[in-house]
């Protein structure tokens, strides 16, 4: 590790998250993880005919996420700007589509 210079010290991000923001992040993570807990319950439920299809649906969703990630990686390597989906849509499709992509 090197020594932090005064210029690097000025570039640090400001701490701007409030207690409400941190609670929202924590609750969102907890509620979001419920999807994985409930998937096991659904696969085990005797009255629901889900069974192995739960595993197949997770595999299909994983494949879709992988392809989406590759698409974003390709766009990020070509467009060097902050803004993710909004900027990519703005550059390639125009302002109206960028608004909807960001919304």
UniProtKB/TrEMBL annotation:
Cellular component terms per the entry's GO annotation: membrane
> What are the record keywords, sorted?
Membrane, Transmembrane, Transmembrane helix, Transport
Principal location class = membrane
Location of the Amino acid permease/ SLC12A domain: 23-103
Q: Which residues cross the membrane?
A: 20-42, 54-73, 85-102
As for subcellular location, the record says: Membrane
Superkingdom assignment: Eukaryota
PANTHER family the UniProt entry points to: CATIONIC AMINO ACID TRANSPORTER 4, INNER MEMBRANE TRANSPORTER YGJI-RELATED
Query: What name does this protein carry?
Result: Amino acid permease/ SLC12A domain-containing protein
Its taxonomic placement starts with: Eukaryota, Sar, Stramenopiles, Ochrophyta, Eustigmatophyceae
């Amino acid at each position: 590790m090197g020594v932090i210079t005064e210029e690097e010290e000025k570039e640090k991000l400001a701490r701007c998250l409030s207690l409400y923001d941190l609670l929202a992040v924590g609750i969102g993570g907890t509620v979001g993880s419920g999807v994985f807990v409930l998937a096991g319950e659904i696969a085990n439920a005797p009255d629901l005919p889900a069974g192995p299809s739960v595993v197949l649906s997770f595999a299909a969703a994983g494949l879709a996420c992988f392809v989406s990630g590759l698409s974003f990686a390709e766009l990020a390597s070509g467009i060097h700007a902050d803004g993710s989906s909004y900027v990519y849509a703005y550059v390639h499709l125009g302002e109206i589509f960028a608004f909807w992509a960001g919304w």
